[in-house]
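Justification of computing resources. Each target in the renewal requires a structure prediction run like the one illustrated here; the chain below, 341 residues long, is used simply to show the kind of job we budget for.
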Amino acid sequence: MAKITVRNITDKKSWEDFVLGRNEANFLQSWDWGEFHKALGKTIGRVGFYNEDKLVGVMLSVVEPAKRGKYLTVPGGPIINWQDREVVSVFRDEIKKIAKENNCVFVRVRPQLKSDEFSKKIFKDAGFIKAPIHLHAELTTQLNIAKSEEELLIGMRKTTRYEIKKAIKEGIKITTSTDKKEIKNFYDLQIETAKRQKFVPFSYKFLYEQFKIFAENGNAFLYKAEFENKLLAQAFIIFYGKEAVYHYGASTDEGRHHPGAYLIQWEAIREAKKRNMARYNFWGVAPLNKTDHRFAGLSLFKRGFGGEDFEYLNAQDLIINYPRYTLNYTIETIRKLIRKV
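Resulting structure tokens:
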């Protein structure tokens, strides 16, 4: 049996070449996602799993500070061969080691794996338990954009197709920007949207640093929809690997009367096609049977573009400190009930 070793990776090209060569490549395991968290002052780790001198897996980890105790996260990863038991075992040992070195209460992993019996067994056998709350989007809706524009339009909900055509007919203007200064306007609009839709907004620094890093490399655009010089909606789209992701969105009251948000999505899909991407990920959606979910309306909007739901394995926790984890588990369970997510 081959001996799997672990080494730190400090070379961006080596990291990106490996990640982008895998089907499960995602921005949460990109080099830039690590740089973003470093800009927020967090401790990150980038390790590679090697079979002799061949790189066979990578893992970005982030230490998250919290009043109830620090915890380690592995978002959208690690990027490894989950069929290889030895690599999985080394991955588990490595995150446990990193967590202890950083005095973390637990490790939370949301892998880039489909939620099925195979993935659930991997984590159960490794000693993980289901996390009480998500780490990143788990139930998503994703659109195969290999089809022609005409085919994509035909595959949409009739109302969605109508709103896109209406937006074009009305002359709604869509512009894009990679200027980090534009994030201030997006942040302000997000605050307005959060009050209306009752969700907790992200901080300005969180949005600024994230957009700055991805936009500098041409991997993020800020879309804006306007009608007669009035702002209707904005969207923060990330383009990475084989998919584009509708990461964040915000809208004005005026946006309720004009279909600017629909045209933004259509233009982002067209941009992703120009980049020869395979799919457009609308990110998180509410379960179909939860009509009282606070994002049920937004989910209806996303699903109208004709994508299919894809459920990633829910976040998994590896407990390091049982007494302190119990407190964390209780708090997060209550928070989930209150927020109806």
